[in-house]
Amino acid sequence: MKAFTTHKGIVAPMDRANIDTDMIIPKQFLKSIKRSGFGPNLFDELRYTDLGLPDADNSARPLNKDFILNRAPYNKSSVLLARENFGCGSSREHAPWALEDFGFRVVIAPSFADIFFNNCFKNALLPIVLSEAIVDDLFKDVAAVEGLELTVDLENQKIIKSDGSEIAFEVDAFRKHCLLNGLDDIGLTLQDEGAIKSYEEQRKQQAPWLFRA
Amino acid sequence: MAGFTLYDKLWAQHVVKEREDGTALIYIDRQLLHEVTSPQAFEGLRLAGRKLWSVPANLATPDHNVPTTLTERQAGIEGIEDPVSRIQVQTLDDNCDEFGVEEFKMNDVRQGIVHVVGPEQGATLPGMTVVCGDSHTATHGAFAALAHGIGTSEVEHVMATQCLIQRKMKNLLIKVEGELGQAITGKDVVLHVIGVIGTAGGNGYAMEFGGSAIRSMSMEGRMTMCNMAIEAGARVGMVAFDRITQDYVQGRPFAPTQDQWEGAVSNWANLVSDDDAVFDKVVEVNAADIIPQVTWGTSPEMVTTIDGFVPKVEDGVTDEHKEAIQRAHKYMGFEGGEAITDIQLDRVFIGSCTNSRIEDLRAAAAVAKGGKVANTLKQALVVPGSGLVKAQAEAEGLHTIFTDAGFEWREPGCSMCLAMNADKLGSGEHCASTSNRNFEGRQGYGGRTHLVSPAMAAAAAIAGHFVDVRHFNLEGGAK
């Protein structure tokens, strides 16, 4: 996984709650057996006016001109601003894969669905939870300044606005460590191989029916 | 000291190691695999030169992409018309063969929707941790197991380490007391609960369903409820162990052998929340208040009763709520104020990991018996959850009831729940569906989903519009 330290980028506002994973990446694109290439189909049903298919030439498809990510400068945005319960629905990691593949590195919302939130950290995508009031203020800032940029400093856990003012945010210490260093957590877990094996031995004694030959 | 909740106990039994930052390494007893969220995980293992930590802890079956028509199925993988789906199903077979994972392949009678297959085989047992790269893994919590969906990176993590790094969730109890009315099912109860707490109401919580209505509910009803815990935002849904759980598990292929059975049962007896356990949140629901539920919008919380109406924009409480109603109206083709019973349907889908088990098919068949699917409908599909459910239904003659009434009787798979195979809604079509999500485009581009119970779906198929199944037969059925 690539590391995440600081990031500066254009903020794309999507002013709606409950943006679900079917919206982020519709199911027909889940048939891929790869992890990459989902960016052109991010928010497919909102972005294009026709039905998207996995093998279509996306550059030839009719765009929904009103959709934020189709308009400059937001077609180059890398920070997504949304309302509560972002990423609800399925467990598909294709959702953060699509966001990351489009170029997003940060998603800011008042709350996230649990599985989506967890999946982001595996893909160098930083989900930031801020209070509804602060998110509301950010929506106002973005509405006032076309192409507003924000800087996200993970080490110091703060968002820096262009006027120099700062917004602090919380992040789990372990996840922060992994993101800052681009660590693969399978390797980290395998450092505890001994603990896993001794747990397993004990469990085999207590509940032998769980272990099939 | 206060007692422990069922979730507290399951968590404590699976902690391999606590970390200083409050997370823990949790041991996973069972991983279920399907073709959509596993290929990148197998590929990750291969690239890193890693092996499966425990081969027999994994069980696989293709479900999301498989065609459900007999013609396509009979031709095997080569018969899957969609080339992209064919590659994905083939990739699962190849990966399982390479890594030695037990797989119920597409035409094995044990194949089916992974959340139907696990319990049916006894591969889901009380006290287990169960994971799968699918959010409806919450289903397995009906067995007093700790079960939840994970992303593909975590699928790979479990493959390689048999563990997950987790932070403990909070405890939420949904207490359903009293007796459910006639024809009211687990589906109506869980839709009602989602309507009460909202789709984000369970975020951060492990949700236990308790109370007398749950205690007297069958395992299949409990599975339907736990299945939709995720639709209320909770990754985990659970029901305590009891005699009903025990009787369901006994004798299944993966269940404890006879010499282990008594030990297992006495171990499982503790899988209940203690009387003095403290929950972070409790929501009480009166069973007798619940009547048949129908969703009208594009989120499972947009639900009302069969005697209800599509809300008007001005019914919204906040500006955001009003906007959500307006957006749903636009997508669903409503203006607000329409009676639910006036919604005309184009298709009916009975199936999915929520409602495709034998009891669901029996309930739908009881309503469909002797009736005819309304001629205004383009299609009414019945898709059993597994090959074994299909065989059981056929042994009981349910398939003939359905086909005589004009329903199509299909091969097992996820089918029209998420339209990854050929079964999908056309743009603008309204569908009465026994599945779990009514999101925009979920059942097909532009498709309009209404979530209901199997009996309600069958009644709607005969009538051509929603009807109150409690009075359906009294009114003469197929009118």
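The mean pLDDT of chain A is 95.
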